[in-house]
Structure formats: structure tokens, C-alpha cells
Amino acid sequence: MYGRTLDGQVLNFGHEGVLYRNSFVMYDKETNSKWLHVTGEALKGELKGKKLGFIPSEIMPYKTWKKRHPDTVVLLGEKVSGMMGSFNLKNRISSFGLSVGEGRNVTLFRYSLLNRLPVLDTTLLAAPLVVCFDPSAVYAVAFRSLLGERQLHFAALVADPKAKGAKPLMRDAETGSLWLRMTGECLAGELKGSQLEQVPATAWLSNRWMAFFKGSRDVKLEKL
Amino acid sequence: MRRMRFIITILFMTAACVTGLSAQTEVVFSEANYDKEMRQVMAPDQFPVLHHPPMATVMETGIEIDAEEPVIGLFLGGEARAYPISVMGGVELVNDTCGEIPVAVSW
């Protein structure tokens, strides 16, 4: 998702009717430049080389989003079915991944991997980060695993299967503090009240991500 | 010597396949590559795009939304907006505003 303001001008986008690497291309009605909706960059036209500002968003079941944001408004419209429309995330874990980073500097963490390793310490462009997954809600987020200049290493806490609705937790190895896995907030321990910084990331259909980024030297595929 | 080189090559190829790091080439997101690889599948604007579509809380509309329905969630400028994938699958692109910030939502 991207901001539509560029150098003080608000752009309005249309569908170019073009597929590039299996992803659609946008054009802006102001200059007719062609934009990749995947990376938010203009490849052709007057605004070639310009980039839209990345805005983080999340894909998750409606009930999880609604619980977080009770006052949320919802887009109304006609529903479609099939690959690009209605489906249950729990039945499609292997189809999705979290693309962490911005523009071309992205790494895909497949949900099938995160389902096995719901708290994954890793690095992106030499910056330490932790990728977190909630298997029950089927969504992922990524945080910088730095608190000031202190690097933390996290491990998932196994939830009590009897505790219905329990929030996924993790613990840092350095202080043993307890953290909410999906918000990056420290609940208890020496670091109580601390907040991890969220890293730009977007949920993707893995096959579309692969089709788009395949062949780019900036992209690293996580080991599976 | 030749046999040794063959074995090393096989080992390298196997490792590359396991890590999924094979077939990495140069960056190709360029105008020239775009012109070469792009496919015009329909006329511009033939695929529907939404501009500031009506949105409401579920309570306001009385419309039921499946609890498991995946949504693209956006929280910006103190405002939360949800874009059901089942609706986005039919439009792919929305020009919208959230918390007074103009955004492009795509799927």
C-alpha cells in the first residue's frame, strides 16, 4: 500500500490494463506515468524513477482486525470468489508469505515456514529483525530486534492449549522479558513498557511474489 | 580432474536448489524490460478501479461479514479501514483516503 502524494501533488491512479511479471500496472491520471503497484515506483513516463511512500498494511481474518479496531469501517462491494477472492486463510497457509522490506529490497518469509517457526530471528540488509507469526489468526509482522543499540533475540512461548483467546507471546533471551508477539509490546520483566519498531512488510500470495521478483539480485529467498 | 570438477558442479547446483538461491540474475526492473515483458491484456480503465468508495461499520450496514474473511487492514491517522479480499479481488485498486492521507490500496 502506498501514499498517493508525491512532491505535494495528489495522484489518482487507474488500471493500465497491463500485466508485468504477472502483476498489474497502474497509471496516474495526472501525467500518465506507469507505476508498478508491487514496488510503488514509476518505470515509464514523466515521473519515471519516482517512488511512492510505503504505507504498512496487514492481511488478517476480519474477526482479528475487528478485535483490534472495533470502530473500523469496511469496504462495501460485490464479492468475487476463486484464487483472488473469497478464501479462508487457514486453508491457504502455504499460499501466503510476508514480504519484508520496501521496494526491491524485500525478502519473502513464507507462512508455511513461519507456521513451523513462529518467532524467527533474522537479518535484512544487515539489520537484525524478528518475524512473528500468529498461527491461529494466520498473519505475520516483523520488528527490528533492536532496542536502542541493544540487540535482542527472541523465542516463542508455547501457548497453553486450554487458554482460549490467549495472545501469542515471546520472550527475549537477554533479559527474559515477556513480549506480545504481534504488537511488539513488552508486557513484563526488565523491559516492561518497551516497544519494538515495526518494519515495513506486506502479506503476499507467494506465487505472485515469486513471479514478480524472480531474477532480481536484490531479493533473497529464505531457506525453507 | 574433470571428474572432480563435475562432482563440485553437481554439489554446488544441489546446494543452490536447496537454499532457493539459484537463478539470481541482474536487476531487470527497467523501462526497457517493462516494454519487453509487459502484456496488454485489456484496454486501460477496462478493469474497475474504486475512487473513494463508500465504507461503513458493520453495525451501520447490518451486513454480516464472515469472521474468517481475510481483509487488508489499514490503520492510519487514527482511522481504521478494512478492505475484504473478496471485494478487492474484483477491483484490485482503490484510490482512497485514510486519516486524511490519500492512499492507493492494491491487491
Explained architecture:
The complex is a heterodimer of chains A (224) and B (107). With 224 residues, chain A is mainly β. Chain A folds into two domains: 40 residues, no CATH class; 133 residues, Rieske Iron-sulfur Protein (3-layer Sandwich), CATH 2.102.10. Chain A has three helices and 22 strands. In chain A, a hairpin with a 5-residue loop joins β19 and β20. Chain B is an alpha+beta fold. The chains are: A mainly beta (224), B alpha+beta (107). At the A-B interface, β1, β4, β5, β7 and β8 of A face α2, β1, β2, β3 and β4 of B.
CATH topology of the largest domain in chain A: Rieske Iron-sulfur Protein
Number of strands of chain B: 7
CATH class of the largest domain in chain A: Mainly Beta
Strand order of the largest sheet of chain A: 4-5-6-7
Secondary-structure element pattern of chain B, one letter each: HHEEEHEEHEE
- Helix and strand element order of chain A: EEEEEEEEHEEEHEEEEEEEEEEHE
Q: Specify Rg of chain A, calculated over alpha carbons.
A: 19 Å
Counting DSSP E segments of at least 2 residues, the number of strands of chain A comes to 22
Summarize the structure.
Chain A has three helices and 22 strands. Chain A is mainly β.
What are the salient characteristics of this protein?
heterodimer, A: 224 residues, mainly beta, Rieske Iron-sulfur Protein, 2 domains, 3 helices, globular, B: 107 residues, alpha+beta, two-stranded antiparallel sheet, 31% helix
SSE layout and pairing:
The complex is a heterodimer of chains A (224) and B (107).
Chain A: E1 2-3, E2 5-6, E3 9-10, E4 13-20, E5 23-28, E6 34-36, E7 41-44, E8 58-61, H1 62-68, E9 73-75, E10 96-102, E11 105-110, H2 111-116, E12 119-124, E13 127-134, E14 139-144, E15 146-147, E16 150-151, E17 154-157, E18 169-172, E19 178-180, E20 186-188, E21 201-205, H3 206-213, E22 220-221
Parallel strand pairs in A: 11-22
Antiparallel strand pairs in A: 2-3, 4-5, 5-6, 6-7, 10-11, 10-21, 12-13, 13-14, 15-16, 17-18, 18-19, 19-20
Chain B: H1 2-19, H2 31-37, E1 39-40, E2 50-51, E3 55-56, H3 58-61, E4 70-76, E5 79-84, H4 85-88, E6 93-98, E7 101-106
Parallel strand pairs in B: 2-6
Antiparallel strand pairs in B: 4-5, 6-7
